[in-house]
Amino acid sequence: xTIINGNASTRPQPGWLYQYxxxxxxxxLATLFTDAHYMGDTVHYTADILHGPLHREFWDFGHVLWRPxxxxxxxxxxxxxxxxGATDARTNIxxxxxxxxxxxxxxxxxxxxxxxxRLCAQALTVNAAIAGFILSNGFLNYAQxxxxxxxxxxxxxxxxxxxxxxxxxxxxxxxxxxxGSAFAGAICLWFLYILAIPAxxxxxxxxxxxxxxxxxLLVQTAIAFTVITGLAYVxxxxxxxxxxxTAVTAWAFSASHGIVSGGFSRCVFxxxxxxxxxxxDGHLFKRYLIGDPFNPVFLTDLLWLSLWKVVLFxxxxxxxxxxxxxxxxxxxxxxxxILNAIPVIGFAIYWSQGRNFERFFPLYPLLxxxxxxxxxxxxxxxxxKILVPLFVVAAAITNVSVMAKPVLSHHEDAVAVRVSELxxxxxxxxxxxxxxxxxxxxxxxxxxxxxxFLLNPINRDLEFVPAITLGHTRxxxxxxxxxxEILAKWRDGGNVWVTRRVLALRPRSEWSWTEGEDPRVSWTxxxxxxxxxDMGQAVGGEDGFMLLRPTGKNEHDLQVRDR
Length: 563
What we know:
This protein has 26 helices and seven strands. The protein is mostly helical.
């Protein structure tokens, strides 16, 4: 069934090339010339898969089947990844996870095309929505990582597609079983897709009418989804030997990884950033909202930065809503989008960090469905027809310019130059020496270097460790935790280096530190921690590094802080 301008039609679907050609070509080109600029937890998934199924972290509540899937496929596909250049187990896992995400991204594009063509017969309109989806900051980035978000999104779209395609067929239990299995798979790859399940189940009712057989399909799919998801989690619980409510609750809450940050203003900014990259301007917005005393930012400063992107994004959402409200079918879609948005946005307000734009992936299918249908009606406002391509073009230029391979390569080379002397000093200890720990402060670009450039040789010599992780349950204990890490590294015979920046009395603006972002810690705390310790060899010039000497005094001071 196709919805054209709010009316049902049974006209035949367009040919394969006509329906998918533009979208698939765009996806291929976009991923050919770009790479991820944020790898998420790929480095942690890789490490856990290397440790194997007996490792406790292998079975994470939030991504319960992602590591097992990566472990199984990396073993099965090792001959192929070896041909592609994966000469060791770690590289084999990285290649496997990234390939799986890329293929899932391709599947997402095909399924979203199918869903949109069933609701809108205008190919140009559908392709505009698909282009916005492919070139969005969140999707284009995560489709090229080893994270589970895009594979989970593919299964969520598959379940939605099955319900919309087969919702009126006679054998509803078969449809329910397939759709429920797809939804269960999405949850097992990333549990937060559960926030999208109510709207996905209700989609046939909102879009085609709440008749009895569709209501029955909703109930049957919900049952199938619940049973399959329950069986998967019960099997893991039994394997882990968890037989008490307390143990299960602790396991579930461990999926938050101790993150406690959130807030409305953070959600507003991150939602827009999920579609259009804001660069490092997020730090400036935080400084303005918080009132950073070290590096104050004024409203006039923001007007020249990414504020126009935020405004453009929310103008787009407003325009989508206004145009959908002008038709009966549009009002149904708005209702469905609201049903989807309430839990997704509510959770993002409660729990999110600056780069957690994947928090809004559960909203993507219906968001881009709404975008397409808002352009599809005869009564679409001319301003909306201008605003949509304007936003898509702006997002495409912004996101591609950040993720372009030459840009990322330049960033990688710049970091390599910055740490070159440090790397030489580490290699002088010999090939068998443990990796050196390099302590950095603030949102130093080095913190994300290892996770972003997983296979760079620098990571074999140096391990970049943040002095403090903000917005975490253990943030108040950062002195104790950092002291333990330093002492453990010394016991293993490794070196500990510290960035010179920590000795500055106040952070520079370009260091991306926002004073007051986490009221439990200040820059003066960091400075005071390191100012009392004895430093040794210095390398790398003014913005270089100092060796933290394993002297008796330093060990005593750190042991005192460790208590």
